[in-house]
Specification:
Blueprint (H helix, E strand, L loop, with lengths): L1 H20 L1 H40 L2 E5 L11 H5 L9 H7 L3 E16 L2 E11 L3 H4 L4 E4 L4 H6 L3 E4 L1 H8 L2 H4 L3 E4 L2 E9 L15 E5 H7 L6 E8 L5 H15 L11 E4 L4 H40 L1 H9 L4 H37 L8 H27 L3 H6 L2
Parallel strand pairs: 3-8, 5-7
Antiparallel strand pairs: 1-9, 1-10, 2-3, 2-9, 4-7, 5-8, 6-7
């Protein structure tokens, strides 16, 4: 054990001396390793951060949830908007049949979405998104209350004029979200009391529920203050735990066709939109980006590998007499090979650490401009360091083998 530690320590000192004594040569050789690790880890970190933000946004939209709407999600030049425009809007009366007939649905909510202004004394807040929701909405969409409370069951049933307000709206109207609780505001000439403020959520790349800039009221109250003809209306259906979303969608299709009395030959006049429908496409996209970054980084690592191999060949030539002396006093081939392999690994590790440091600096810059937080996970760091060590071992194999095969007499006489 002690001998092994001595070999490792001696190899580390030799690698440091190589970098110190031959700075230009070492820099040029390590540059390829640095750029390679920078590309690979930089891409991995950015893509992982982006993917996490997208998945978080999808989770906020409602995991294992179907949106029953008039329009299907999507678009493009061939989108048949003229056909979907003729469809009827989802109705509140369709909520009860889904609840009673569905064996897969765990929670069902109806949403009436509008846009309007909020008044508090002499202050006015315009273009606020209003959502009139039924009681199950909070079971589908996670709503974390920071101050106050959420709307209770009695208030939903009676349509009481109670409001849960988004963090940004409360901040703009009252200067502090905490001060909003208990205040009475005016919505479309109707007074309503704020009972809670949603915890700040932040922006999401996938859009969806912008809980920072909305107000939530009971549906029975919302239908009194929101123009139903100009509002967006849809049903949210969340499957029970363990229910496959395709099974839920198939059951909902049958229920909706029955409720709307569609004949077998008629097309569906509703859309069942799944928030997870594009997950496979996103995973393919993320995989392609990772592959592209890996290929670019791989080319840089190959250049760096040859650079490190060149350093090691020069090092072997410079230390030929030392190698001969070590072998003359009994050093085995395995000892010589291990010494040079460790030295080449340490050199590559230095380059990898510099690359990781550059990635860290880039993440600081990106976090200042991107709408999502870029981070470098421990797994990514370990991956980068492992790649550096492997490249170092590959770069040092031939030089180390050359050194180990030297004849001690010939090596000692060389100058």
């Amino acid at each position: 054990m002690r001998k092994s530690i001595q070999v490792v320590w001696h190899s580390l000192k030799m690698a440091l001396n190589e970098v110190k004594n031959n700075r230009t040569r070492s820099f040029l050789s390590l540059f390829g390793i640095t750029i390679g690790i920078f590309c690979i880890i930089g891409v991995l970190a950015t893509v992982q951060s982006f993917q996490k933000d997208v998945e978080s946004g999808i989770q906020k939209l409602g995991n294992n949830t179907i949106y029953v709407q008039k329009w299907p999600w999507g678009g493009g030049n061939d989108f048949p908007w003229w056909k979907y425009m003729k469809r009827p809007d989802p109705r509140y009366e369709e909520l009860s049949p889904i609840k009673t007939r569905s064996s897969y649905a765990g929670a069902v909510a109806f949403i009436l979405a509008g846009n309007g202004s909020i008044e508090y004394k002499d202050d006015l807040l315009t273009s606020v998104n209003w959502y009139g929701a039924t009681e199950d909405f909070s079971a589908i969409q996670e709503i974390e209350i920071e101050f106050g409370r959420y709307i209770n069951g009695t208030e939903f049933a009676n349509g009481n004029p109670t409001v849960v307000m988004g963090h940004e709206n409360a901040l703009k109207l009252f200067g502090s979200p905490e001060r909003a609780v208990g205040k009475t505001i005016t919505l479309a000439k109707r007074n309503a009391q704020i009972v809670g403020v949603v915890k700040k959520q932040g922006a999401s790349l996938v859009g969806g529920w912008d809980l920072d800039n909305i107000i939530i009221v009971p549906f029975q109250f919302a239908r009194q203050v929101i123009d139903i003809r100009r509002s967006d209306k849809f049903l949210l259906v969340k499957g029970k735990d363990g229910v496959n979303v395709d099974d839920l969608k198939g059951e909902l299709q049958g229920i909706m066709r029955s409720v709307r009395k569609l004949r077998p030959a008629e097309e569906d006049n509703f859309a069942l939109n799944d928030v997870n429908a594009n997950r496979d496409q996103l995973n393919t996209f993320f995989g392609s980006v990772n592959l592209g970054g890996g290929i670019i980084g791989g080319f840089s690592l190959i250049v760096g590998l040859f650079g490190i191999a060149n350093i090691m060949f020069v090092t072997v030539r410079e230390r030929t007499s030392q190698i001969g002396l070590k072998k003359a006093v009994g050093a085995k081939k395995s000892y010589i090979m291990t010494e040079f392999l460790l030295e080449s690994s340490f050199l590559c590790l230095f380059g990898g650490l510099i690359g990781l440091f550059l990635v860290y600096l880039i993440t600081l810059a990106l976090n200042a401009v991107l709408p999502f937080k870029v981070f470098v996970s421990m797994g990514t760091i370990i991956t980068g360091l492992t790649i550096s060590i492997v490249v170092g071992l590959l770069a040092g194999i031939i030089p180390a083998y050359t050194a180990a095969r030297m004849d001690p007499v010939v090596a000692i006489r060389s100058k």
